[in-house]
Specification:
There is one protein chain. Helix 1 runs parallel beside helix 3. The chain is an alpha/beta fold. The chain has one domain: Carbon-nitrogen hydrolase (Nitrilase/N-carbamoyl-D-aminoacid amidohydrolase, 4-Layer Sandwich). The protein is 24% helix and 32% strand. Strand 7, helix 4 and strand 8 form a beta-alpha-beta unit.
């Protein structure tokens, strides 16, 4: 399976503008036959904790319809980051849009301490199943918890997908961790990070993919916008810049 990760520079709080950026990445991914494309944490709003409550919505938001149509037309699974509301709770979520299938939402289960004043944890792991591959999404902080990956692989994950918003320092730590996880479980690990200003820090980019042996197969530069597509059969990557 050809799985892509996108690296974008979200416009703070501007969902329509960020949807347009997502569409450019999705079309670009389709040119290299990607079957799925995943975006960074809160990619549709930017990682802006203080805005999460005001911007929170759900998977049926009509603004996402254009992403669903694009998924249907191009035959590509899309994972986009968005704050969602569950009752009175606000969660950091990934909305999963698959061709001609109902939308689903995975919400971050394990929060960083900085998120406690704004966000509540999600409940349960969502798996993204295709004809050949089971993908386990993880959102930022929880992807650095060994127990989260262990549970995902216990549930039959073929690929571990980390959607993050991390600073340059955080990315360096994450790269070491994801390489270790890939080698330990003999499964590929992919990471999509944003670039540019995010909340109180600057996101460090370097979205990447690791082989089953924990070898870095490819990455984007810290300030690039573009995609990296990993072929799970050949473990080769295709890199395209916007």
């Amino acid at each position: 399976m050809r799985i892509g990760v996108a690296q974008t520079k979200p416009v703070k709080g501007d969902i329509p503008a960020n949807i347009e950026a997502h569409l450019r990445c999705i079309v670009l991914a389709s040119t290299v036959q990607a079957e799925a494309l995943f975006f960074p944490e809160l990619s549709l709003t930017g990682y802006e904790l203080a805005l999460a409550n005001a911007l929170a919505t759900d998977q049926d938001d009509v603004r996402l319809d254009v992403l669903q149509r694009t998924s249907d037309e191009l035959g590509i699974i899309i994972g986009a980051g968005l704050p969602t509301r569950a009752g009175t709770d606000v969660r950091i979520s990934m909305v999963i849009l698959a061709p001609h299938r109902p939308r689903r939402t995975y919400s971050k289960q394990h929060l960083h301490v900085d998120e406690y004043p704004y966000i509540q944890p999600g409940v349960g792991q969502v798996m993204i199943d295709t004809a050949t591959t089971r993908i386990a999404p993880a959102i930022c902080f929880e992807s650095l918890l060994p127990a989260h990956a262990a549970k995902a692989f216990d549930q039959g994950a073929d690929v571990y997908l980390a959607s993050v918003s991390k600073s340059e320092r955080g990315v360096a730590k994450a790269h070491d961790h994801y390489a270790t996880i890939a080698k330990q479980y003999g499964r590929p690990v992919l990471m999509c990070n944003s670039a540019g200003p995010s909340d109180t820090f600057v996101s460090g980019g370097r979205s990447a993919a690791w082989t089953r042996e924990g070898i870095l197969a490819g990455q984007l530069a810290p300030d690039e916008e573009g995609i990296l597509v990993f072929d799970t059969a050949t473990e080769e990557v295709s890199r395209r810049i916007l």
